[in-house]
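Email to the structure team, subject: Fanconi-associated nuclease model.

Hi all, the expression group asked for a predicted structure before they design truncation constructs. Nothing fancy, just the tokens so they can compare against earlier work. One-line instruction: predict Fanconi-associated nuclease, return tokens.
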Amino acid sequence: MKDLRQYFTFPDQISLPGRSDASENVTADVHNVSVQSDEDYVSSDSAPYVVRSLEDAIQLVLTDSIFKQALTDADQIFLSRFRELSEPAKLICSRLFGRVQRIFRKTDLSRIVEANLDEYMSELVSAGLFSATIDGVQCDTILKALNRQELQNLSSRYNIRNHKKLKMSELIATLLKISTGSASNCFFGKDLCPEARFRKHLHQVLGTCWCIESKRMRLLSGVLWLSGMGSDMAFGSPQRSKTIESQLKTEFYHMMLVRRGEIVYPSFQTTKKTTVYRSPDELQQYLDFFDCQLKLEYTVAEKQFDTATESFNSMRNHLLRLITDPSHLRTDVAGFLRRFTLPYRAFRILLIGIDLLERQKRYQDAVTLIRQVLFSDDGGYCTKASGTSASGSCPLDNLGPCRVGRLLIRLLVDQGSHLKQPKLALDAVRNFLRIGNNMKDGISACPCIRAGLRLELQEQLSKTVDILPGLKLPNDRKDVGLKPPKRRRSAVPSAEKENSNCDFSVVHIPDLVPDLLQAPKVEIRAPVNASSKDLGAHRPHYLWFENSESQSLPDESSSQSRSNQKDDTDTFLLTVEQWTLRYYTSRLGYEYGKYFVYLSHSGDYL
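Reply from the structure team: attached below.
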């Protein structure tokens, strides 16, 4: 994926929104990153970095014929007019990009540009980025944007009793009820209807204000997405974003780092151009789904389960159609590019929906949703009991990066553990992986599941088998490759005592991982000549004796101390990890970078 992470030479590498059947060999040197420019437009070096980043993204999209295919003619005209705006007007637009707030007062904008604010805002209104009225905004949205003083001023015009003692949520609810009151009085023509009167009072309370046009901001989001969709910075972020605009706003700073040369990508060669977004509608649908995903993630993280459930249920059927209907799958796109397609984004939203159902302990609904994804009854590409195809590829690979391992684990946990139906869960996993009587077939089944998930799935299969009544694992499969079980209570239940002498039938689970060899155990019983507090360390240190001719570990510096040298013997104080590495390299002949050691702490022993 590093081959795609370019901002300014991206169309010469992989042209995502358009298609070119002819193969091209283009070599790009990312050490000399420069923005394409024509004779009519040159980006100013003295402009703020947010303005320059937005200008570079627009310049990149408009100067490439393939990127233009993802935009309508009206969108291209708007972007061309945007480039002609003054720098302060662009600064206002760039600073407000990504904010959840839609209504901005004159005092808010004066913090960005102090002089000639009305002139610059008239430019933005003429360009269509802002509206000088708030008539197109819903009343509940306007009320949530008001501060307490403005809410109190509006409440005083309606003579609401004790409005200064009410909470803001109570004020908003009361005013919203007034704004949506009965309009029977306006029949006689003397008085305004409640909503018109409410908006009249709003204009008097707010004064001069502007409303941002969401459609134009979404267009700028599409420009940023096209110009930086190959960047690893545009996806994962530690903070939760409410909208796609706030998610893509970080690209301004990352593009500045590319211009400075602080982010340098290796040079590469491209031999083919691929279509991802075949029309402007397809791009807008993808952005809308991405925005829905971010909002759903935020509401779930904030534990607003009722709002999240209502939003998810409204689009659940449409999401399932996008995943199960073969006509929506983008098999014409390479596997590493399918994560930019609409079916993959719908699949990610479904994963959030499964997590939402599990958080509400609606395990039966979660199992039903997982089975609808894995086993489609309507003739979809994931037909029942046909998990992996004859070629060994997983059907979920057509969506993008495979998540079937996580789905199978959640199916075993929800249906096997929570719903107490382990037999149905085990049969579902075996049917999807198409594992017959030969348990070794599981090693080659669904190769898209990475090693860590395969081991976790193997462990969950073993735990599910333990739930089955009258069944147990064979002796050679109890401990190999499994995590140590939790500490059990000392008191054994009476039912377990009665069944201790009964005969159990042995059940065989599929082998999803090859045979694992356990690493040799090392016990540290070396004495410590001083406590950790006296050594100035927070952890115990152990003694290591070796000949002075032996070389020390390369990472042994401040964490160890050489104490004495007598009879050609050196003594070291090592931590438990350094002691173990020293043992493997000096005693057993292991080499660095070729082996993996799992350290298990138990008191002062390893």
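Strands lie at 26-28, 103-105, 130-131, 209-212, 268-270, 471-472, 505-506, 542-547, 562-566, 569-574. The mean pLDDT is 74. Ping us if the truncation boundaries need rechecking.
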